[in-house]
Design brief:
Blueprint lengths: L1 E4 L5 H11 L23 E5 L5 E14 L3 E13 L8 H15 L4 E5 L12 E2 L2 E8 L13 H6 L2 E6 L4 H14 L8 H6 L12 E6 L5 E10 L2 E9 L2 H12 L6 E7 L5 H4 L7 E7 L1 E5 L2 H7 L6 E9 L4 E10 L2 E6 L6 E4 H8 L5 H6 L4 E2 L4 H9 L12
Parallel strand pairs: 4-5, 11-12, 15-18
Antiparallel strand pairs: 1-2, 2-3, 3-4, 5-14, 6-14, 7-12, 7-13, 8-9, 9-10, 10-11, 15-16, 16-17, 18-19
Length: 405
């Protein structure tokens, strides 16, 4: 078997092989674009071929920026389009592609890789751990009145803005600009490169699927939030709500919850700890469902990754990190002071022993080290080690990712 990088000439073969791996057929191109694979970067794709040249596997990465705790922005590889033909599964093709890909990412100087896992059992063995989570929030419209805030200030801020309804085709630049401002402040968020918007590649509101967009503007008329939505059979479904602060989110939520001729409102891609449920006058009006993992993280260079993010508690921690897929085992001293970290190899006794996948899960602050210790995945070598790790890895804001790739 040969694994080799692709060029633009390989696009059709790559797409056909990927779809065959999942038993699907490529969509028919439509005017205005919108094919999800149109944003593929062919110099970051690989094909696995048999000795006689038949393509049997695919994998690719996108070039994104990831927002870390402390609002640091770092380049990150977004793994996508991973598939193996049914005739060649369980023959080592996937493992060979993943090892090849991780080696290439390191050669590019990248310290982090992320993906959305189609199946939760697949990617842990390659060193990826779930790091952000998302859910749906459903509410019957007749019970979904929002209560007046008991703390003063929020109502006045929200009242200072306005909401305008536009069609998706009318507001592409607004969506791109607002999303970019949002993702730069939200830990766990990924960039949406301009070419994604230009090619309309992805899911709504990036894709050309017909949608209405409620655009919120501040008192100066500057767009600072939006909600992309559609109504079908009496249910209003919000694809995503992007807001630069909680007051803007509340204003957009109130707008869709008061939509006429709607019996139910569904908010997709809501952070698990979002306050919207607490804002209903009837607490039971909001039903949380579909709570699931979203962004999975893999560290490729542990010291670089740990020193790139911001920190909010001073302290020291010795991490004994096992990377069985790449056959590596290292021990690091993590020292945090005044929001910055230093991470160097050490021979000191460890505070925690953990798999590289578990380090990926705790990296953005969305999973507490003590949770994984209680689950039997992280070993704490002395009382208080897990609590110390919780305090160090905690963040001021929970990580969340909306972007589909």
């Amino acid at each position: 078997m040969e694994i080799r990088p692709t060029t633009d000439k390989d696009l059709d073969v790559f797409v056909d092989t990927l779809h065959a791996a999942f038993g699907l057929f490529p969509e028919t191109p439509v005017e205005g674009g919108g094919l999800w694979w149109s944003a593929l970067e062919m110099d970051r794709c690989i094909l696995a071929r048999t000795a006689d040249g038949r393509p049997v596997g695919t994998a690719a990465t996108y070039s994104f920026e990831l927002t870390l705790p402390g609002q640091s922005l770092v380049p990150v590889a977004g793994v996508t389009a991973v598939g193996v033909l049914p005739s060649h599964r369980r023959q080592g093709v996937l493992s060979a592609m993943m090892r090849h890909q991780l080696t290439e990412l390191r050669a590019r100087g990248e310290s982090l890789s992320v993906l959305l896992a189609s199946e939760a059992l697949i990617y842990g063995r390659f060193g990826y751990g779930p790091a952000t989570y998302t859910a749906q929030l459903k509410a019957p419209r007749h019970k979904a009145a929002l209560a007046a805030p008991r703390a003063r200030g929020e109502a006045e801020v929200a009242a200072a803005g306005s909401v305008e309804v536009l069609r998706r085709a009318e507001c592409g630049e607004i969506l791109e600009e607002v999303y970019d401002r949002y993702r730069r402040a939200q830990p766990g968020a990924l960039s949406r490169p301009h070419r994604w918007w230009a090619l309309r590649a992805g899911q709504p509101p990036v894709s050309p699927a017909p949608r209405y967009v409620a655009v919120h503007r501040n008192a100066d008329g500057v767009p600072d939030g939006y909600a992309s939505y559609a109504v079908e059979s009496g249910t209003l479904t919000v694809d995503e709500t992007i807001a630069t602060d909680d007051a803007v989110f509340t204003a957009l939520a109130r707008f869709v919850l008061e939509h006429d001729l709607v019996s139910k409102v569904v908010f997709k891609q809501v952070p698990s700890d979002h306050p919207l449920r607490w804002q209903f006058a009837d607490f039971r009006a909001g039903e949380v469902s579909g709570d699931m993992d979203w962004l999975w993280v893999r560290l490729l260079d542990v010291p670089r990754a740990l020193t790139a993010r911001g920190w909010f508690t001073d302290g020291e921690l010795v991490l004994d990190v096992d990377d069985p897929f790449l056959g590596e085992h290292d021990r690091y001293l993590l020292t945090v002071q005044d929001g910055k970290a230093d991470c160097v190899p050490t021979d000191r006794e460890p505070d925690l022993s953990l798999d590289i996948r578990d380090l990926g899960s705790i990296y953005l602050g969305g999973t507490a080290p003590s949770t994984l210790a209680r689950a039997g995945h992280i070993r704490a070598h002395h009382p208080g080690a897990a609590t110390l790790a919780d305090n160090l890895f905690r963040t001021e804001r929970s990580p969340h990712c909306l972007h589909w790739f």
